[in-house]
Specification:
By secondary structure, the protein is mainly alpha-helical. The protein has two domains: about 35 residues, no CATH class; about 190 residues, MFS general substrate transporter like domains (Growth Hormone, Chain: A). It has eleven helices and no strands. It starts with a helix and ends in a 10-residue tail after the last helix.
Amino acid sequence: MTGFVPIAAILIFWAVVPESLRYLGERGRRSEAISILREKGFIAPGEERVLELTGSKKAKVTIAELWSPGYRKRTAMLWIHWFCIVLTYWGIFLWAPYILEADRGISLVRTIKYTLLMTTMQIPGYWSGAFLIERVGRKRLLALYMALAGVGSLLFSVASTDLEALLWGSVISFFNLGAWGITYAYTPELYPTYMRGTGAGWANSVGRVGGILGPIIVGFLLKISGSKYLIFLLFALLHFLSSTDVLALGVETKGRPLE
């Protein structure tokens, strides 16, 4: 059940957090912007006339614009990162019970219990990312969490006892989901308001490709090897690839005005 933490978190944020004033301004939704400003005490009744909100700058953003000189590095970084994080997440946690059963020789019921214990670490991992993001910054924290998930994957691949597998699986769970929390905040900040939906949407779509391929790749590797070693070595490499990608191509948005 905890495997659906990202979905639950998105629904909660969507329901609770209001749209940004910049977004409402770009869409010409003046009354909603005024309502938020009144609620927060930024304007008094009668001051609405001083507000000037423009309509949308562009009706449609093309994929070519995402790859224009000013945004191509950001787009490349996001596509690589989203592909890696979604592939590793679904590849690991959909197959974890069967990987443990094949590798450790323990019952499927017991491996499901182990998997549930590991996935409970997703909740504190997710919220730790949300807590630290304004203190550490998006780029460095995301790269760190993906690297630590990679370390957990590498150590899981050579785990020789049930306790080691549970420990390193929990490390992967904590930092992979922590990276999800950072990713959701970081992604839209890399584009100006009028491009934000398109940019985030394409990154998410590339991630879905990874989410489809992940379980397929794991099933194939498990069939030909019957061992977790190759599988989690691949996951370690993908986590490290994402971490390097973020460090090399990402930009820090902490404390910077959004476009």
